[in-house]
Specification:
This protein has about 200 residues and is mostly beta strands. The strands form five sheets. A four-stranded antiparallel β-sheet has the order 1-2-3-6, with no helix packed on it. A four-stranded antiparallel β-sheet has the order 7-8-9-10, with no helix packed on it. A four-stranded antiparallel β-sheet has the order 11-12-13-14, with no helix packed on it. It starts with a helix and ends in a 15-residue tail after the last strand. The radius of gyration is 18 Å and the shape is globular. β9 and β10 form a beta hairpin. It is built from one helix and 18 strands.
Length: about 200
């Protein structure tokens, strides 16, 4: 019962800010190390929101434009941010100028997920899958694709670095499986879900 009492003593969360500015629905949210918030939207933009002034209120976000279709994935990187879109491109953003630093081409379908590995310095991306264009995940280093991960039978909804010395990557898919990759080799497939796997999280241990 002590555990229950401790939970009851925790102050409840309250709404601290509403970030208004996108013209269509927001598809993804991420945060930068300095506390800024990244959002991406079906309005084809990414926005960067920062607190300002003594009250610490979030100001209207800087608008990052470069995609030609819905932006459905966004993440922080060591040097800025990256986003993925229905235009099949990944964009690495220079946040100081608000302009694309690199536009990464190679996916054959909508880019459904992006993430960044601090251990390897690689950017990861994943895509939808169709009968004509199978889903893939890609590993990018300094703007070049260094690995393409093939094997899922449906859209890859999430891609996550394990952050180990071997550079392992995990993907999650609409085919109800997760896969562990070393380089371009699938070293293990995790089965058991009864529906699409849409998110991944790295836990201690």
């Amino acid at each position: 019962m002590a555990g229950a009492a401790d939970v009851m003593d925790i102050e409840p969360f309250t709404l601290s800010a509403t970030l208004a500015g996108h013209e269509q629905d927001v598809r993804a949210v991420a945060s930068l190390a300095d506390g800024a918030v990244l959002t991406s939207s079906r309005d084809a933009t990414v926005r960067v929101w920062r607190r300002g002034g003594d009250a610490g209120v979030f100001g209207e976000g800087a608008k990052l434009e470069g995609h030609s279709h819905f932006v459905i994935a966004v993440c922080a990187t060591a040097t800025g941010a990256a986003s993925g879109s229905n235009d099949k491109h990944v964009i690495e953003w220079d946040l100081s100028s608000g302009a694309p630093a690199r536009i990464l081409e190679g996916h054959g379908n909508t880019v459904s997920a992006v993430s960044y590995s601090h251990a390897t310095g690689c950017l990861l991306s994943a895509s939808w899958g169709t009968p004509d264009t199978p889903a893939t995940a890609k590993v990018w280093k300094d703007g070049a694709c260094v690995a393409t991960l093939k094997g899922h039978k449906a859209t890859i909804w999430a891609v996550l670095p394990v952050e180990d010395e071997q550079g392992h990557v995990i993907t999650a898919s609409g085919d109800r499986t997760c896969k562990l990759w070393r380089g371009e080799e699938c070293v293990r497939t995790f089965e058991g879900h009864t529906d699409a796997v849409r998110a991944l999280a790295l836990l201690p241990g």
